[in-house]
Each structure stands twice: as structure tokens, then as C-alpha cells.
Amino acid sequence: MKDNVTPAEAAIHLVDVSKVFGKIGTAAAFRAVDGLNLDVRPGQMLALLGKTGCGKSTIFNMIAGLTAPSSGTVRVNGRDPFAEFDSFRGKMAIVFQNDRLLPWRTAIQNVELGLEMLEVPVAERRATAQQWLTKLGLSGHENDYPHALSGGMRQRVSIARAFATNANILLCDEPFSALDESTAGRLRAEFVKLVKENGKTAVFITHSIREALEIGDRIVVLKRPAMIAYDVRFDASTGPEEREDIRSRIVEVLAV
Amino acid sequence: MSETAPQAASPPPESMLSGAAKRVWESVLPFIVVIALWQFASLFFPRFLFPSLIDVFWRCLEIFADGSMFKDVLVTIYRILAGLAGSFVIGAALALLMVRSRAVDKFLSPILTLFQGIPALSWVVFAIIWFHGVEFRILFIMVLTTLPAFTFQVLGALRGMSRDLMEMVFSFRPSRAKLFRVMIAPAILPDILTAWKVNLGNASRVVVVAELVGATGGVGYQLLLQQQLFDMAGALAWTLQLVFFVLIVQGSLTLIENIAFRYRAVSERVI
Question: Could you tell me the CA-to-CA distances from B39 to B28, B56, B131 in Å, in that order?
Fold first, then answer.
């Protein structure tokens, strides 16, 4: 199921990317990512799977432009997300592991945050934020402060905040890992639906095989220091038996 | 979508009323006790030691009613506010530089710590030796005595900002002005208000010392006159002018806190 995508076509393009924390060449240096090559085509939902500490979040931060690679090339929509940080305003949105809502803002004001950065007029951004809150089942909670919302509701607000800017690239760092399984399951299903409906390219970090199989149409399994140990693509037509094979293979790879 | 938000039940109006009455009583009680003790002492001590608070009350009214006397109060208030504002602006700018550059931090921290160790009275003496203008002297003293505290408090607030929230806001690629408005200002506001509250008390004490030694007007100067006249009622009345001012500003800051920080969750269990 290998799809061929040229660097120019790729939404996310990583070539020989390494990241070393600490001074290179010293005993204190820690190599978190080592020579990673990865292409993500537009509209793909990539699940990055790996054990804790395998470098998933470092890759995530480099794609988000929050960290620069020590060597290699990172391109998102053909641009360097770290060097050309501001040029990605409104083009990339992130859903974090915890909701990261600003406690001094109400739910709707939190959803409006990205739109404010884009200088969207007040009335328009209020309407867009309202629409996303309604879509995520938070109608009636617009003026609640984060402390008055449950964990699941807060994470919904953060998802609404990410979708409201209509960014093409969506980066998600284990966004449901802090929620109970039933809430996480519901939100996951809603999230996949929204990503598909809105034609986003999504990179979804997880350490759950089940979540990766539910979310992604491609799974990349990483091993420390962030090297691709297994890369598999599938789609809605992939049957239960084939999915079970994929799951078994992932378990094997992770066990090694 | 079955999860529900934690709901706080609103108390009935009667309990809200009795709660408000209790809060008022609790805030007034300490003042009543101090006033009663003073008045009790005035029955047994000479007038120049413990004058009756009724006399003090009339002297306070006299200061309020007499334009030229009240002008001295306003001059002192102006000096306090100007000194604090100057100190805050310089302190905030220094704190921003220190948080952005480790070298600046390493250079300025010892100097500010050194300044913190210099007594207010020493600054008064330095100012009298160095400068001629009374107003500039007092402004200099006010700024120098409150600057280290403002700088360190703003620096602490900037460093204490949540890294997670900062990264989240950064992920939307804000301009500098937007970053300041949506993240930095609201995050450091609680510490800034606390810094103002603390420095206001310090400034009201320092300004009196500065006026006592180096000015020809203001509450400090009037206190010097009362001391020369051995007039305790007058000294107390002038002191109370400053106390009223500090209480009014502290009350206003508390009001701002109550409005600005209504987003905070309140735990039913206290520390």
C-alpha cells in the first residue's frame, strides 16, 4: 500500500532529520531523533506510534516549528516551520495532550484565540467560534471559564480552537490520553469525522495501538532514537483480519 | 456527550446577605478594637501622649476642609503615585530585559540586590547631597527605594508564566503585541497587583521620611511641624490622611482583583 509522493507534493517532508539535546560530542548529548526520513501527503492522517521517550514529541515540535532540527531538513507545505515561523499563521493548528486553555478566558474566547491572531473581525470570529462549540456539543457553555468545565469538555474546547482557524495541517499530541476511555472514544470518533470532513492533513501522536488503528490511515512506528521501525498504510476498506495483522506486527516491532 | 460540567449551587439570598454582613463585621472589627484601646488609654494618659480620638477626628476634618492643608495631602499622594509609576515602568522594563538576556540578568541582579540593602534614609541623604530640586529629590528617593522590589516581582511573574500555555499561544504565531495582550499581561497581572499593594505601603512610609528631611510641604513636612509643637493629635491626624489614602488604593486594587480574577476556581477548603 505504498503511495508515492514527491517532496514538492508532500504536506510534511522530513529528510535525514536529527535532533540532539545538549552539546553534540559530549557525554551529556542526547540524540532524540536520528536521520529520520518521512513524507506525509496532503489529506493523510498519520498516526505516529511509539513508546514513551522514543522521540515522538520531538518530531512533533520540529514539525510545529517550536524546535529546530540539529541537522536535516523539515518542510511543511514547502517551507521551514522554524525559520519561517510566522508564515504558518493560520496554516497549522495544534491539539495538545492537555487542553491548555487560557484560564482567564471563557470557552468561546479560547476558541477565538487563533482567529484573533489572524485579525478576523470580532463578529465573524465570534460566529465561527460559536459554530465550532455547537458542533462539538458545547452549546450553552460558551461563557463558562475552563475551571467550570469537565476534562472532556475542556478538550473539546481545545479541539474547537484548533479547527476554528481552518488550518490545513493539524498536529495532535496524544490529545485524548488524559481522558477516561469512554470519553476518549467518543471524542476520537468525532475528531476523525471532523478531520475527514474538512480535508485536513493530520499528524497524530499516540502510544496506543488501538488509537492509532482507529485514527490513522497510516501508522508509523518509531523506535528510540526516533527511527522508523514500521510504516503501514490502510483505509476504510481494510478488513478486520488485515487490521489484526497490522496490530500484531506493531506489537512485534514494539516488543523488539 | 454525556459528561457534565461541575456545577456550583447558588446560595439563597438570606444566606448571601448574612454572609455579606459577616464579611463587613470581620473587616471592621480590628479597627473597632484599636480605636477602643486608644480611647481607653486617652482616659488615663496626658493629651500630648494619647489625645482623645474625638480631637483627632476634628483635626482630620479640619485638614479635609482647609484647602491649603489638604493640598499638602494631595502633594504627598502625587509624590507616592509618581514615584511608584516611575519605579514600575523602569522595573518592568528591566525585568523584561533580564528575562530575555541571561547576561543582563547576571549584571543587574547583584546591583538591584545591593540597592535593596541600602536604607531609605541613606537615599534621602544621598539625594540631598546630589540634587537641588525638592521634587526631583523625592522622586529619586521613591524610585530607588521601590525599584528593586518592582523589578524582582515582575521578573518572578514573567518567569512563573506557564510554559505550556506560552507554547500553545506561540503555536498560533502571535505578533509581539498580541502575545503580550493575550498571554503575558493576563498571566502576570495578579503578581503586578500584589507588587503594587506591597510597594504602596513601602512608598507611603518612604515618602514621609523624604518629606520630613528634604521638603517644605506634604504630610512628612506637616508631621515635622507637629513634632516641633508636641501636638500628638495633629501628628495622628496627618498620619491618618496617609492611612486613608493607602486604604482607599488598597481597596481599589482589591476591587480590580475581584473583577479581573473572577475566572479563578475557588476551593471550599482553605489552606
Answer: 17, 11, 44
